[in-house]
Specification:
The structure is a single chain. The protein is an all-alpha fold. The protein has a single domain, classed as Farnesyl Diphosphate Synthase. Helix content is 71%, strand content 1%. It has a two-stranded antiparallel ribbon with strand order 1-2. Strand 1 and strand 2 form a beta hairpin. Helix 3 packs parallel to helix 9 and helix 4 packs antiparallel against helix 9. The longest helix has 28 residues. The two termini are 31 Å apart. The relative contact order is 0.11.
């Protein structure tokens, strides 16, 4: 099974339903406030149309069909659309906090508003408000109508929002709180943010639609999504510094300028100069090059960074192994496991810059 092909196919259906749901919610609750809010609807829909989205929504669809192919596809499509909208709201606010200018090669929402608002603070406030509105609309979408597993889906979405916001608060504390700068704190951020909105919450919603509530099974999928989130975020942190903007669609200086405390930075344990540069808001391009080189040089003599690069493989392998526990019912839809396996393989084999190379005389 080719994961990327399957993902694109799911996203075609999800995106169509998502536009319908946004129009419906705006017509019923938002535009009656004032017709000028159609401008905000258009900005939100433009943001959702960006390429490279859809992991969460696709997971909802695939897990909803875990027990049998004859599931309520319309309900699953509704929840998948809401999941993508919820994640968009989270990322809109996340982009603003990082002051990122681009995502997926397109201007971020706060940058769009800065083009039309005279005051920067008003533009930024509108971006945050649109992110909050998106998350609220997502909850309304899953609350409409009646379908099996609905209450569990609503609870999952609320619980995910709480965990994601809590993880974001912790993430913002880390750069300036040395007492919190531990690898366990960083892993907690990874699990409660990326692990939750990209994998954990969508999988739980899909399982709720499938009528799966066995604690042992839920634990198996939680282990799967947690490991996947850790591996995925390590990759994202590496690409956030060493990735090429023309390929990632976002700047490779934001993390350094904002001093984002990641497992990569924690492992590098750089000297005075790295600490001077990392977190410097007006970091120049030359200083960014120097900062990357300092991390790389630290990596060459730092076993912790070597171990971190190996950990990403371990996390992906752990995720794949979770699918073969006894909790997996062999009567379930085999296509679901095949899809999840293909996703792990796709993510694991993405080209990620290596920060160190083994010595040429190293035995393999």
């Amino acid at each position: 099974m080719d994961y990327f092909t399957e993902l694109k196919r799911d996203n075609r259906w999800i995106h169509e339903r998502l536009n319908e749901e946004i129009d419906k919610q705006f017509e019923s609750s938002v535009l009656p406030v004032h017709e000028s809010l159609s401008e905000d609807r258009d900005i939100l829909k433009d943001y959702l149309a960006k390429p490279g989205r859809g992991i969460g929504g696709s997971l909802v669809l695939r897990l909803a069909g875990l027990k049998h192919p004859g599931f309520d596809y319309d309900a699953a499509l509704r929840v998948a659309a809401a999941t993508e909208l919820q994640n968009a709201g989270i990322l809109i606010i996340d982009d603003w906090m990082d002051d990122s200018q681009f995502r997926k090669g397109q201007p971020t929402v706060h940058e769009r508003y800065r083009e039309i608002e005279f005051h920067r603070d008003v533009a930024d406030a509108r971006a945050v408000q649109l992110g909050m509105l998106a998350m609220t609309i997502a909850t309304n979408i899953v609350s409409d109508g009646e379908y099996p597993g609905q209450l569990a889906v609503i609870r999952t979405m609320h619980h995910a929002n709480q965990r994601i916001i809590a993880g974001t608060i912790l993430e913002n504390k880390l750069p300036n709180r040395r007492d919190l700068q531990t690898r366990e704190s960083v892993r907690s951020v990874y699990k409660s943010k990326t692990g939750e909105y990209s994998f954990g919450a969508p999988i739980k919603s899909g399982l709720a639609l499938a009528g799966v509530d066995n604690p042992v099974t839920l634990d198996m999928f939680n282990d799967f999504s947690s490991n996947l989130g850790l591996g995925f975020q390590i990759d994202d942190d590496t690409m956030g510094i060493y990735g090429k903007p023309e390929e990632t669609g976002k700047p490779n200086t934001d993390d350094m300028r904002h001093g984002v405390y990641t497992l990569l930075y924690d492992a590098a344990k750089g000297g005075r100069r790295l600490k001077e540069l990392y977190g410097k808001r007006d970091l120049s391009e030359d200083e960014a090059v120097e900062c990357r080189e300092l991390i790389r040089k630290s990596s060459e003599k730092n076993l912790a960074v070597m171990a971190l690069q190996g950990h990403r493989w371990k996390y992906y392998d752990n995720a794949a192994s979770a699918l073969y526990r006894r909790a997996w019912n062999e009567e379930w839809n085999p296509a679901t496991r095949e899809y999840l396996q293909s996703m792990v393989s796709f993510l694991k084999n993405k080209p990620i810059p290596a920060l160190w190379s083994p010595p040429t005389n190293c035995r393999t």
